[in-house]
Amino acid sequence: MKRTVLKGIVASSLLAVSVVALAEPTCTDAPESDWMSKEAMQQQIADMGYKVKEFKTTDGGCYEIYGWDDQERRVEIYFNPVDGSIVEQEVD
């Protein structure tokens, strides 16, 4: 009985990790030496009209922001750090 429960817990944990990994896009496999600097990317994002609450680098090779667009809608956006293009975005 204990083994069955333990196997179920392990399987559920692995599934949860897989789902989280799928939720984040892969933006580039280019080396970080080819990326725009964080400062340059943040300036480009501001020039696009976004207000940034949080800026981070993801495991998928993206720059990611949480913030607001020029219409004050909440956004989560993944940017390609090489060219600054939007890879994926969610607007609330």
Put simply, the count of helices is 2
Number of strands: 4
Give the integer mean of the pLDDT values.
88
How far apart the termini lie comes to: 45 Å
N-to-C order of helices and strands: HHEEEE
Helix content: 25-40%
- Write out the strand line-up for the largest beta sheet, numbering strands in chain order: 1-2-3-4
Radius of gyration: 17 Å
The CATH architecture designation is Roll
- What is the CATH topology descriptor? Nuclear Transport Factor 2, Chain: A
As residue ranges, the low-confidence spans are none
Look at the structure and give the CATH class: Alpha Beta
The SS-based structural class is: alpha+beta
What does this structure look like?
This protein is α+β, with helices and mostly antiparallel strands. It has one domain (26-91): Nuclear Transport Factor 2, Chain: A. The protein is 35% helix and 27% strand. The protein contains 2 helices and 4 strands; from the N terminus they run H-H-E-E-E-E. It has helices at residues 2-23, 38-47, and strands spanning 51-57, 63-68, 74-79, 86-91. The chain has a 4-stranded antiparallel sheet with strand order 1-2-3-4, covered by helices on one side. The longest helix has 22 residues, at 2-23.
